[in-house]
Amino acid sequence: MLDEVRRHLRLKHYSLRTEKAYVGWIVRYIRFHRMAHPREMAGEQVAAFLSMLAVKGKVSASTQNQALSALLFLYREVLGTQLPWMEGVVRAKRPKRLPTVLSPQEVQRLLLAMDGRPWLLASLLYGTGMRLMECLRLRVQDVDLSRMEILIRDGKGGKDRRTVLPRSLLESLRKEMERARLLHQHDLLAGQGAVWLPYALKRKYPNADREFGWQYVFPAERISVDPRDGVQRRHHVDDAVLSRAIKNARIQVGIDKPVSAHTLRHSFATHLLEAGHDIRTVQELLGHKDVATTQIYTHVLGRGAGGLLSPLDRLPGALSPPAE
């Protein structure tokens, strides 16, 4: 059954990360009900599993909703079950939280504490507003050094978009691409050099997977086995490399806020709005479907709560402590 789950997920072009997550939730669901087959269970068992996650596991609303999505995919797409209870399942309400945003000075301190490839990756995230995996999955042909643009293919929601390429990163990015070229030439001489291609491009263009234009801008150090088909290829660099570097840099420079790769994307959007750029332009650069998603950054601008003068500060002598 799990093989069928994987087959259906790949048929609908779900990412490998989503595949691993969905399979993991389905396994936990079956084990929770003592190895009962999903066909023998229904809404009551699904509700019990989700309640366990929330009450005993204390998972977040987004995690609980991911588990529900995995189970609904299992019943609808794999088992072909259409039961009345499936329409009545209520998703957990996600709390509205403001994103963590760094000041320009904090971003500068963070980047100065990094070097090498992690520095370039972090600089690209802040300078372009890309998501982490969009940056790691960049192909050579999607970086236009002459037009100073980056084409992001198959982003969230399956959409393509363009974003700005920071001029200050032009030379560093050119050197990184040259490094990728030399590594690819070495792989070709060793009988390797193939890269994973999405959809049916491998059948349509049989030799495209060995062309340099399709190679990753940030290739991994080692060739590994692709879990989707068992073929040895050079994948892109692991996202954990950047996550560790950002954590170490944050600690080193003494930033007490929680900082992740996505924080740099939040900071990109906020700083553009602070600079007076149109919110529709920022929406397009971020790849948001609805401008309402982009509007969350207006709540963390300096002219919001941090730009007001508290009425307490208007009182005469309010800033002076009382005499002891």
Automatic annotation (TrEMBL):
PROSITE patterns registered for this protein in UniProt: CB, TYR_RECOMBINASE
GO cellular component: cytoplasm
GO biological process: DNA integration; DNA recombination
Boundaries of every Core-binding (CB) domain copy: 1-79
Domain of life: Bacteria
Compartments it resides in: Cytoplasm
Residue ranges constituting the Tyr recombinase domain according to the UniProt record: 97-313
Coiled coil: none
GO molecular-function terms, A-Z: DNA binding
Keyword Phosphoprotein in record: no
Pfam families in the record: Phage_int_SAM_4, Phage_integrase
Location (main, coarse): cytoplasm
UniProt keywords, alphabetically: Cytoplasm, DNA integration, DNA recombination, DNA-binding
Family: Belongs to the 'phage' integrase family.
Primary role: Site-specific tyrosine recombinase, which acts by catalyzing the cutting and rejoining of the recombining DNA molecules. The XerC-XerD complex is essential to convert dimers of the bacterial chromosome into monomers to permit their segregation at cell division. It also contributes to the segregational stability of plasmids.
Protein name per Swiss-Prot or TrEMBL: Integrase
Natural source organism: Stenotrophomonas pictorum JCM 9942
Phylogenetic classification of the source organism: Bacteria, Pseudomonadati, Pseudomonadota, Gammaproteobacteria, Lysobacterales
